[in-house]
Write a structure and sequence with these properties.
It is built from one helix and 20 strands. It is an all-beta fold and 422 residues long. The chain has a 20-stranded antiparallel barrel.
Length: 422
């Protein structure tokens, strides 16, 4: 994190007309668990005390766009049922406009935690630190008023606690044609080379994507289509070619509501997918899908959102099929829904209800494993002072599997006080 702050200060000094925004927060928490290690037969209750701090910096100028959020969470389990493993998070994005409209340099850094074994319990002892650093240029060649060629290159370094370190090079060439103010067309050629430090356990691969996409935007709504193919050259299995496509619609129904729909198929680089890396605490997320493999993934989603002064509602349903190109152990069929509702109480207080449900069939296990993951949470935020919140959260995390030994229920209650800068 320190290296990125230094870069941010250095680049911002290149231009005098910049605006830097600094925010910070500090929170003390006390959380009770009925089954903290998520086992079928829990031993006893657990209590967790936490101290968490977060700092965010944003920078905006004609030469620099940057945002950095960093947090650190100290944890102490009083009964020592789970490990006292502190958690650090970093999400940094720096875009230097060296020659505005012609050349940009991008630097990103993500530090977070992901699952060690994605088929095991989602608890702190099943977490590993990961750091992903990305650097590279964007170069724009404007042929005329409606045609542009974009060139992109990235160097990516991924470091893990558990010996799956790797380096990647990605490139992209895009020919973009603006038909009019509503319709954009693009022809895209992308490439990726992935090299692992231990190729005997993680397969090196090359991939090449060629696809066409069209985007129509008007009146706050947009729809798009994409189709092409992916060529995969893998060290451990035969080369293969897969189709890719995407159809989507994002429609603004009114000033306060919108809906979205998507149907897609693509070859997903699981090793570059950091799921829920910056949303809440990792132990509160549903089972991650993280492996160093390419997955042929088919998605269908539908969502509806309402944002008004009286209520905010987000509703999403999804269906997903994953097929690994090398490792089939994690192949799955999944479906589920996510609902979040929040509404204001008095004096700036807020109440929120979250429901997350996911049904997953792991189809290439020795015996097909069928999991039903559920998370229910009711939250209340009390604005004690302008810069102080009292937070209360009652939640339940549940797993119901056809393997009865995996079933568990964990009831939780959190009380925390938070101080924030603005």
């Amino acid at each position: 994190m320190l290296r990125l702050i230094a870069i941010l200060i250095l680049l911002s000094s290149l231009n005098n007309s910049y605006a830097t925004d600094l925010n910070y927060s500090l929170a003390l928490g006390n959380e009770f668990f009925t089954n903290v290690n998520q086992v079928n037969d829990p031993v006893s209750n657990e209590q967790l005390r936490t101290l968490a701090g977060e700092v965010s910096i944003s920078e905006s100028s004609s030469f620099l766009q940057a945002a950095l959020t960093s947090s650190y969470r100290i944890q102490n389990y009083l009964n020592d049922i789970e490990v006292d493993e502190n958690q650090a998070q970093l999400n940094a994005n720096i875009l230097w406009l060296a020659y505005p409209g012609r050349l940009e340099w991008l630097l990103t850094d993500i530090y977070t935690q992901v699952a060690i074994n994605t088929l095991d319990r989602d608890v702190p002892s099943n977490r590993q630190d990961v750091n992903i650093l990305t650097f590279g240029p964007n170069y724009f060649i404007r042929l005329n008023s409606v045609n542009t060629i974009n060139l992109e290159g990235r160097l990516i370094g991924q470091s893990f606690e558990n010996d799956t370190d790797n380096n990647r090079i990605t490139t992209a060439v895009r020919y973009i044609h603006n038909m009019n103010s509503y319709l954009n067309l693009a022809l895209n050629l992308e490439g990726e080379i992935a090299k692992f430090d231990e190729p005997e356990s993680d397969s090196n691969f090359d991939r090449h994507d060629l696809f066409f996409n069209a985007l129509y935007s008007r009146g706050g709504s947009q729809m798009g289509i994409e189709f092409g193919y992916v060529d995969i050259d893998n060290d451990l299995v035969n080369n293969t070619t897969e189709s890719r496509y995407r159809l989507f619609l994002e429609s603004l129904r009114s000033n306060t509501s919108s809906l979205n729909m998507e149907l897609s198929k693509n070859v997903v680089d699981r090793g570059s997918q950091i799921v829920n890396s910056n949303e809440g605490t990792p132990s509160d997320s549903l089972l991650d899908s993280f492996e160093n493999d390419l997955s042929i993934t088919t998605n269908s989603t539908f969502g509806y959102e309402v944002n008004s002064d009286s209520v905010n509602v987000t509703f999403n349903i999804f269906k997903q099929v994953n097929e690994g190109t090398v490792v089939q152990l994690f192949d799955s069929n999944a479906n589920g829904l996510n609902i979040r509702t929040s509404w204001p109480a008095t004096r700036g207080d807020r109440v929120a209800l979250d429901i997350n449900a996911r049904n997953t069939d792991f189809i290439n296990q020795p015996i097909i494993r069928k999991d039903q993951d559920r998370i229910y949470a009711l939250s209340y935020t009390y604005r004690a002072r302008r810069n102080i919140n009292l937070n209360y959260r009652l939640s339940s995390i549940e797993l119901d599997s056809n393997d009865d030994s995996l079933d568990f229920k964990d009831k939780r209650f959190l009380i925390s006080v938070e101080y924030f800068s603005n």
